[in-house]
Every structure is written in C-alpha cells, then in structure tokens.
Design goal:
alpha+beta
Length: about 160
C-alpha cells in the first residue's frame, strides 16, 4: 500500500494539461432569455419598416448570437461555419458551407448545399424552400426568423 501513496506528490508536478472553458455573456444576456420574444408570428420587429424594397432580414431567435440580424439584399447569401460565409454561424452543428439564401424574382428561397445536419423551415427538413414572412429557418442549433420588407407596386407587377 505504500507504493500507492508514494505517487501522490509526483502527480502534482506532472505535465498534465487541464482544459477549462470560460463563457462570456453580455450583462443583459440573461434578462433577454427571460424576456418574451421580440418577434411575433407576423414578424413585427423594429427596423423591418426601414428595409429596402425587395430585401429581407434574418433575425437569430435562438443560438449563440441570439438577436443578431442579417440583411438579405444580394442575389445569393451564404450561411455556414466557414469564416468567408456571408452569415457566419460559428458552431459545430453548422457545416462549413451549410445553406444559401437566394433571391429569385420577388421570392427568397433557402437551399441546403449539402450540410451534414440539414436545414429546416418551420421544423420540417428541406432541400430547398420558398420563404414567407415569419418563417423559422433552423441551421444547426441556430433558429432564425425570416422577415420581409415592404413590397413596392413595381415588385408585384414585374412578376407578371
């Protein structure tokens, strides 16, 4: 039994590395978790009224950067874990190149581009789907609400 106890002091000087993780949250983060959601099914969020015609907004409803907003104002907007993504979602549940948001005509569409965990719209798995105001898009553990800006009369007549 003395052999067992003789290594106690040696363990303290070993080269073992312990890994610790520290999470940093904004001071108001916990209050936001308890607060009611700022978006409704109709997608009323301040700032939506100011969106340019023909553009849309993605608001992170749930995920590491909840509350972040991403403007969809290009023909194609990429989302993924790759640092060069237009929408950078830094989490292991997100593929490097996960999904694209495409503006086709007057409609926005989300397209899964071969992700490992899939892309969901309103909790249904999709390869691609046309988005409507208030739809919830899930990419990994991120849940984003899709909100559209006001449509001009030109937008509706150009699709005829």
């Amino acid at each position: 039994m003395t052999d067992k106890n003789s290594n106690v002091g040696a363990d303290q000087t070993s080269d073992e590395v312990t890994v610790e993780t520290t999470s940093v949250f904004r001071a108001d983060f916990l209050n936001e978790l308890d607060a009611p959601a700022t978006t409704s099914a109709e997608g009323t969020v301040s700032g939506v009224e100011g969106l340019p015609s023909g553009s849309a907004l993605l608001v992170v409803k749930r995920g590491p950067n909840a509350g972040s907003r991403f403007l969809l104002d290009q023909p194609t907007t990429s989302a993924g874990r790759h640092p060069d993504s237009d929408i950078f979602l830094d989490d292991v549940t997100v593929s490097r190149r996960h999904a694209e948001f495409r503006l086709e005509g007057a409609e926005f569409q989300v397209v899964d581009v071969g992700s490992l965990n899939g892309t969901y719209v309103n909790r249904e798995p999709v390869d691609s789907a046309v988005l409507s105001n208030g739809d919830e898009v899930q990419i990994g553990k991120f849940r984003l609400v899709f909100l559209t800006g006001p449509r001009s009369d030109d937008d509706s007549s150009s699709s005829s």
